[in-house]
Design goal:
The chain has 8 helices and 7 strands. It is α/β, with parallel strands linked by helices. It has a single domain, classed as NAD(P)-binding Rossmann-like Domain (Rossmann fold), CATH 3.40.50.720. Helix 1 packs across helix 8 and helix 4 packs parallel to helix 5.
Amino acid sequence: MGKIAIITGGNRGLGRSTALNLARRHVDSIITYRSGAGDAASAVAEIEQLGAKAVALQLDVGDSSSFGRFADEVRQALQQWGRQDFDFLVNNAGIGIYAPIAETTEQQFDQLVDIHFKGVFFLTQKLLPLIRDGGHILNLSSGLARFSLPGYAAYAAMKGGIEVLTRYLAKELGPRGIRANVLAPGAIETDFGGGAVRDNADINRFVADQTALGRVGLPDDIGALAAVLLSEDSRWVNGQRIEASGGIFL
């Protein structure tokens, strides 16, 4: 029986790279998108070109009231595989907000909570009955949960919460054989946060200068590792935080 992954935000960036790297390992995907339907369609096509199967479903991870409907859509989608469950949940979707503590608005804070913490908690909860025993939950965190850069306090705090939540998931789901781990990327060249790391030469140079390997990360640096962590090769890794940052701020 082939494996199936649900990847939130799989239409672009790290989520898309994860889906493509899984496809190269013959893992099928249900990817979600919030508004980029065109990107989602092209991601599905690219996955299928690699010989895997993919479905794209619309989902706003910041709207927990929609999760019941989404779970029903997942059940329907799984019928295409002749299954009632899936193997991997990758909680990847997110946004970046830059604001010093003194300037962070309550609206910004609530938006980050809804997307990066509440959304992950309750989407995972809603999908738990559909995750196959022996499956894996992979939550995306950030290097910013380890080191501190002014302007990212609220975002990093949400990721710190996700890292704690992941340990509890590993503990509570252990009896079902479900692993839960955190993948914490460093700065990556994507459109995340307005594409600042990718498009701003000064920021890109600063990150590279602070990184032991001397460059900024690329999406496949994360997507390839995510595929490894979801594989049987990592079956004894559980409740752990794995940072993929090229050695930044060591």
